[in-house]
Design brief:
Length: about 475
């Protein structure tokens, strides 16, 4: 069970900075009586707001059955200047510690057998998990009651000792305490001092002289873009822009882990047509061709579907006509659609191609309806077609009746504009014997935009609106 300490201010979950933010635990001390503290160092070139972006999470007494997982929030004014430290201490610690402390609370900072971690607000999970940690001291998986963790070959160094981060350590441990603690003084990230040794409290030596890398935001569209940065630290915040690589205004690969505010993706508008009439030149139906490649599209939201609905996913062929790439009948249970890819051995487009977008239609009681959908774009899912990939439709609404744009070939011509003999102008076993307009006049030369009544040899007739094709 998570327990939140609010310290007289409200807790707000804000996802505003990534796991690669540039702070680390520079010192940890578990001494006599209440002489305990944790020191946090800012190794970036900019000030960092600890509130509301970070929390100090603790796992007390092993977090057995999810209990004793505490989330300690920083005060609203908790800021670390570049190259400076922020000290969290027990409120009854020695005055030497309190003189350096920026924030205190009663139960800081454990008894040497309690894991403490810097985590992002809103990304702590429901149970203490070192995988969610930016930086950590201790390992909940190897907890033993009353026993501290070994550091640099020193037994139980997190208990009755002060441990100081080496100046050569350039970044946080991302929750990997075992690698950080090491097994000896050479492979450890820490220097172990005796109990109540506070000689390094209040400052941290950070030796970055041999490293020419500059961490910062490398997304040029971000409000916090840093032109001199050589390594992106995933701290970018973009107001507007687009995270979708298939969009016209894709913000770029350096922005892939950025936080997007007011995202505004823009896509290429394609002139497409379709007609649910099998004699139209741009006719379509819900049949599809099975090819060697497909993408599985799972429909998570089925709340707006009715039993018997035929749900189809469509692509656009080389003529600008929509064609079905896969369909399935909804029978009341969760559904998944196989969206088949183009057969590259043929010259025609008969399936989806890489990065094609999806058009979903629903056939209900003989009527075709358009849909409004939301696709999950977070890995491993894709919102465009990928061979053997996976897609997830998180919301699906059946909206308007599909607006058909039927195109029929003029009498005497096929859909490719080729002239037909009268004998070829046959629909099944019947022939067109005459064509008349709405005033009953015989029409020999059909013009664009005319409504024509075709009279067949079996006495039937049919009304069509013709466009030149």
């Amino acid at each position: 069970m998570i327990k939140y300490f609010n310290f007289l201010f409200f807790f707000i979950i804000i996802y505003s900075q990534s796991i690669n933010s540039q702070i680390l635990i520079s010192e940890y001390s578990e001494g006599s009586s209440y002489n305990k503290y944790i020191e946090i160092y800012n190794y970036s070139s900019e000030s960092i707001n600890l509130y509301p972006q970070f929390v100090l999470a603790s796992c007390t007494n092993g977090c057995i059955d999810g209990n004793n997982f505490y989330i300690n929030e920083f005060p609203e004014d908790a800021i670390i200047l570049p190259g400076d430290v922020y000290v969290v201490a027990a409120n009854e610690a020695d005055q030497v510690i309190l003189d350096e402390a920026d924030f205190t609370f009663q139960y800081c900072c454990g008894n040497g057998d309690d894991a403490y971690a810097l985590m992002l607000s809103g990304a702590t999970g429901d149970f203490f998990d070192s995988n969610n940690a930016l930086d950590i001291v201790g390992n909940e998986q190897s907890w033993q009651e009353g026993v501290g963790w070994d550091v640099a070959g020193v037994e139980e160094a997190t208990k009755n000792h002060t441990i100081v981060r080496k100046s050569s350590v350039l970044t946080h441990n991302a929750g990997n305490w075992n690698a950080s603690a090491g097994t000896n003084s050479d492979d450890s990230e820490w220097i172990v001092l005796e109990i109540d040794d506070w000689s390094n409290l209040g400052f941290h030596i950070y030796d970055n002289s041999s490293n020419n890398d500059i961490y910062g935001c490398m997304c040029e569209q971000a409000t916090n873009y840093m032109s001199i940065a050589t390594i992106d630290d995933d701290s970018c915040i973009v107001d507007g822009g687009c995270s979708d690589s298939s969009a016209l205004n894709y913000s770029g690969d350096f922005c892939i882990f950025a936080e997007f505010i007011n995202e505004d993706c823009q896509y290429e508008l394609i002139d497409v047509s379709g007609c649910y009439d099998d004699i139209a030149c741009n006719s379509f139906d819900f049949n599809y061709l099975i090819t060697n490649a497909n993408m599985t599209l799972a429909v998570v939201d089925i709340s707006n579907l009715v039993s018997g609905d035929l749900v189809g996913v469509f692509y656009v062929d080389e003529n600008g006509v929509i064609s079905c790439g896969g369909s399935v009948i909804f029978e009341g249970n969760a559904i998944a659609i196989a969206a088949y890819g183009d057969d590259t051995s043929t010259t025609i487009i008969d399936g989806f191609q890489a990065n094609n977008q999806f058009l979903f239609l629903v056939l209900r009681d003989g009527v075709v309806y358009e849909t409004a959908i939301t696709l999950n774009s977070i890995s491993p899912f894709s919102n465009t077609w990928i061979a053997n990939g996976f897609g997830q439709i998180t919301s699906l609404s059946v909206i308007n009746e599909f607006s058909q744009d039927c195109i029929f070939s003029p009498i005497g011509y096929d859909c490719n504009g080729n002239v037909l003999d009268v004998e070829e102008n046959i629909f099944g076993d019947k022939k067109i014997i005459s064509s008349i307009d709405i005033l009953g006049r015989i029409v020999n030369d059909i013009q664009e935009g005319q409504l024509i009544i075709s009279v067949f040899s079996d006495g039937t007739y049919e009304k069509k609106y013709y466009l030149n094709h």
